[in-house]
User: What shape does this take?
Amino acid sequence: MKTMTGRTVVPAREGRAVQVAAGRRVRVVDLEGGQVGDLFAFAAGDVTEQLSAAHTRAVTSRLFPRVGEAFVTNRRRPILTLADDSSPGEHDMLIAACDPARYAALGAAPGHASCAENLDRALAGLGLAVEVTPQPVNVFMRIPVTGSGRLEWLPAASRPGDSITFEAAMDCVVVVSACPQDLVGINDGGPTPLAIDVLD
Amino acid sequence: MKTMTGRTVVPAREGRAVQVAAGRRVRVVDLEGGQVGDLFAFAAGDVTEQLSAAHTRAVTSRLFPRVGEAFVTNRRRPILTLADDSSPGEHDMLIAACDPARYAALGAAPGHASCAENLDRALAGLGLAVEVTPQPVNVFMRIPVTGSGRLEWLPAASRPGDSITFEAAMDCVVVVSACPQDLVGINDGGPTPLAIDVLD
Assistant: This one.
């Protein structure tokens, strides 16, 4: 697999894909703070094997893995291990990627950018496509569960330069969308860019 | 769409599909009590539009809908409305369907039945197939979330004859698997049958 190390900037409201070799680390950096990233991961060469939130919860018996634990695919194989987290440590693995239907329901004009379309566009750049948008890992997104099973939507608390780092457990494609949500207050101060660093 | 009313028994460890017309009610009955059912729903004529746990959480801002609220598809269209619940009211929408990889990890001999394979077999009976197993709605399954984001696996508390009833918001295919899990104690007393009643 052709992979590169170095920084890929994800402009505000856009998405980018990186190819990551097994054993390499991939870091998502919140450049300006308060920004949610929708992260997707796929086995290299087969997008039908993909990071699965539901399988990861089953394997970890947690809503979100702890540092040292792995996110697994829909075939229950580790794909990314949570290696490090310099942020306040609040991330979401419950909520679907935003999409045109979401923005239509919120009253946005047609053409609002979305994480689902950012994923499709980033994959298309690699000649890949998915039939159904997988559930993302929403880094820096704060969706606390209250005792009654209610979910709250809070602004991201990540500070400028905060990051979350994963180690690839297999050759994979990682897509990160800098969430364009500006109608629900999850991105503190509005959409801003992220960076993806693939480390040596 | 060809649909029928009446009862479909789902034998222990097996799955069955029913076609449900918009406006009809479909009831899942725990015949002997303590049995988890993995429920999947697909838009009639297009299995790439499917009940989505992640989109349903986003739309309801809850871990599980309340009576009167709808489960939505990955296109955010209501597919099933939770109409009635005579059980203790504990259901899960966090955990993936069991599959051969799950049973291999638990040390089962090859060939153990699984909800993922039950889904595939039930869909195949209608000439349908999915690329990736969707996350099910696990009726009667008890997976409480503790304050620290940990998930517990408890035996189903449903009593003989308890049921959960949905109203179809669109023509759809509903698949129910009587979960064959017998290595983790979610099915109280071991796997038993369920019934699917499609009501007039």
User: Anything to note?
Assistant: The CA atoms of residues 55 and 74 of chain A lie 6 Å apart. Chain A has one domain: 6-198.
